[in-house]
Amino acid sequence: MRLHELSAARIAGGVRSGEFSAQEVLKAFLSRIERDEPRVRAFLALFGEQALEAARAVDAKRAAGDPLGALAGVPVALKDNILVKGVETTCASKILRGHRSAYDAHVVERLRAADAVPLGKTNMDEFAMGSSTENSAFFKTANPWDTGRVPGGSSGGSAAAVAAGFAPLALGSDTGGSIRQPAAFCGVVGLKPTYGLVSRYGLVAFASSLDQIGPLSRTVEDAALALSVIAGHDARDTTSATAAPEAALKSGRGLSGLRVGLPKEYFVSGLDAEVEKSVREAIAALERLGARAVEISLPHTRYALSSYYIIAPSEASSNLARFDGVRYGLRAGEAASLEQLYERTRGQGFGPEVKRRIMLGTYALSSGYYDAYYAKAQRVRTLIARDFERVFAESVDLIAAPTTPTPPFRLGEKLDDPLSMYLSDVFTIPSNMAGNASLSIPCGLTAGGLPIGLQLIGGRFKEGLLLGAARALEAERPFPRLEAAA
Amino acid sequence: MERVGPAAGMTTKTDYEMVVGLEVHCQLATRTKLFCACGTDGFGETANTRVCPVCTGQPGTLPVLNKRAVELAFQAALALDCRLAEESVFARKNYFYPDLPKAYQISQYERPFSTDGGLDVALKDGRVKRVRIHRVHLEEDAGKLLHEIGSKRLDYSLVDFNRGGAPLIEIVSEPDLRSSEEAYAYLTALKEVLQHAGCSRCDMEKGEMRCDANVSLRARGRGELGTRAELKNLNSFKGVKDALEYEFRRQAALLDSGRRVVQETRLWDAQRQETRSMRSKEEAHDYRYFPDPDLAPLRAAPEWVAALKASLPELPAAKRQRFQSQHALSAYDASVLASDRELAEYFERALSGLPGGAKTLANLVINELLGKLNAEKMTAGRCPVPAESLGELARLVQAGTLSSKGAKDVLARMWESGKPAAVLVAELGVSQVSDDAQLRDWIEQALRAQPQAAADLKSGKERAIGSLVGVVMKLSKGKANPARVNVLIKEAVSR
Known about the structure:
The complex is a heterodimer of chains A (about 475) and B (about 500).
Chain A: H1 8-17, H2 22-40, E1 43-46, H3 49-63, E2 75-79, H4 106-113, E3 117-122, H5 156-163, E4 169-174, H6 180-186, E5 189-192, E6 212-217, H7 220-230, H8 245-249, E7 259-263, H9 273-288, E8 292-296, H10 304-319, H11 338-349, H12 352-365, H13 371-394, E9 398-402, H14 418-422, H15 429-434, E10 437-445, E11 451-458, H16 463-476, H17 482-485
Parallel strand pairs in A: 2-3, 2-4, 7-8, 7-9
Antiparallel strand pairs in A: 1-3, 4-6, 5-6, 5-10, 9-11, 10-11
Chain B: E1 16-27, H1 67-79, E2 83-84, E3 87-88, E4 90-94, E5 104-108, E6 114-122, E7 128-140, E8 144-149, E9 152-160, E10 167-173, H2 180-196, E11 209-219, E12 229-234, H3 237-256, E13 264-269, E14 274-280, E15 290-291, E16 298-299, H4 302-310, H5 316-327, H6 331-338, H7 341-351, H8 358-375, H9 387-398, H10 404-417, H11 421-428, H12 436-449, H13 451-458, H14 465-475, H15 482-494
Parallel strand pairs in B: 12-13
Antiparallel strand pairs in B: 1-10, 1-11, 2-6, 3-16, 4-5, 4-15, 6-7, 7-10, 8-9, 11-12, 13-14
Helix pairs in contact in B: 2-3, 5-6, 7-9, 8-9, 9-10, 10-11, 12-14, 12-15, 14-15
């Protein structure tokens, strides 16, 4: 049996039943990593001995007859902005190199409680700012489908790890599309939960009002399984929802009778022809499964990107101010004054994209500009959220659209053109602005063999509905696995 | 840096009026910090022993609001007669400093939880002045930088986060104060109210109460305000008073010589007794305030506010009133006893079971006990003499068993031994003789010994009674009840 090809659900079942051990599972994935990681470079760090210990503990638990959790023995890759106690968390930034976390993130506690095996930390755009993982301060990650192309970002390492068979499951974070866009580029499932469904405690903040942790997996079932483990209220994050999770996790009823909205603002010029064709085919499949497609309008969509680039950098400029060289992480030496300590530490520690966004945000929040920028962007955000509320209240159950305007682009292609890079998230950002549930599911390949993603967007706490629809689609149109394609 | 230091009592060309508004920070009397579970008892303890990932700004941490801090803050605002907002918003105040671990302070900005209050301040001349409170808001404290160890100056700085994240309220007054004395009286009244309400201990030595002052001058009678200076580092009530007086002289000298006051922040140097420019308006920080996305707006349900209001203890002003009306105390006695909650509680406990004895008890507390407490820097709550024992002592004085001199001696022994009053009276043999037969016997002897005084008294020279009483006291070894002796001497000579 090729253990590394099994889904997380299947692995957990096999470990629980004793069909194979957690250690065997871990070894299978480690050997895949050993074989292909030099080509892909998905991981910033592998846990090695610590992972082995966790797997052994799971096996020991079983041997002792103790019940095992929902992710028994499942190796999980973690984006490097999620804290694991005693382990380096760098956010792929020089400013945090060497910084070991003092505690486990809430999601890591949940994974451990479910008997999962944390496997390693994955590469990302520095502080989750970027759409290609090329902004990592350490190295670039390749798209396993075509190593000349980007895996997307910012959770590019997590998406690449799942696509390459390094782990059945990974966690990423999504602020403007950072789970869904790399999931689409790497041909895996990526779920951005409703804002507040998963605790942010232990996630290094980029833009606090937008950030959500979510799973990347090869199957829809695995995404649902992972969500059921990490979702739920956490008293340490007061923005985490108290009552909603139960409804959110209730499994959907498939597609029969569902009204699926096709927002005309998402099918516009600039949308790659192959992407559009593939997405429309997927929508046709949804209809065959009993859904009814209706064209809708989300008129404020076109303001989403620009208002996002006010709000996210504003929050980031404040969130990243704590990296000052005083308490942890990089401290530039030889500073003659306090100002110099700050300037040098931050000057040397942050990469160009992070600096760009800190400056954007600092400017937008400045006295005299606040109303024109930040306050106005927040009002636009309200309008975007109302667009969604209106269509969900009036005409549709969920929305189908492309996840990205293009297939994965080449390494280096957009690195010197931030605006074109930002456009890569034009279809994913509105869901973050509204706090909606949203996922990307692979829906086809380009003629050149590159993955394309279909985005399904639901209202707040409609994860169950989305996952149910995605599962039906997955069964109807099985997506080619990288194994088969390669 | 300017050095203007005209002598106190300077004469100015123009009759200037000082206009002062105060910003006072008080630490709320909670057990834990505002956004984490670390203790607030870190003052004087080893540095960085009251810290956790949250209050040291570790990556990935989030604030969780302390409910008790909110209750105390709201009670403080209620005690200051403020209007409470049904919804208020936490905002981030962004600036870099090593004592601020997140590089922003969680505070409130555009939407504080309370506004439009007022505090009645008793002035020296007996007037009561209403000082308007502009707003009260909730925020977290910063840590503390250390630049020396003992007397050794360091060429680096150390930071202690024990205090970082402690809950503060900032109370901003309107510019209603007109002199350094008024500022002093306002601070005194504020401290009384907050201590009484149990919201803050206001211990300035521990930094639990800190004050900044905005001060400007204008020609008396003019309406518009002059350019103000903000004074910082005023570490005591006296510091506030001294700094304001210095600033009055500095600004008056500038204005008199036709120069302008510059809007700036100035630091008070208590050693040199002067203010120094710290930063100009142009150098002022842009704090880039924005609503903290990690914290939902703070909503105050009306029922919850009503319950807080109901649980608010009696405040000093009401207590003063009640002490005068209920216990028939003088305004002075009432204000001394009501100024401190523990003292007032002690007094009322001692008074129970002592009908009509309020004045006697007040004299004992104010003239004897308070001096001892102050000398030992002790609050009434920690007084070694139980309130009930002091009540008993007052009863003995009231009954004439004990002279006030005797009461003083007994109290001193009570303080040390903790023994009940009656036991000590017997031990010390200080009980007073009020038995008329014995007193008349001594009086007869005195009249015989001092015939001239007896004659003078008989002819209406009231003052002559003194030497007769003196003889009786001598004969009685000080134990005769002087009040009764006075009465009986008059009886004797009028026969």
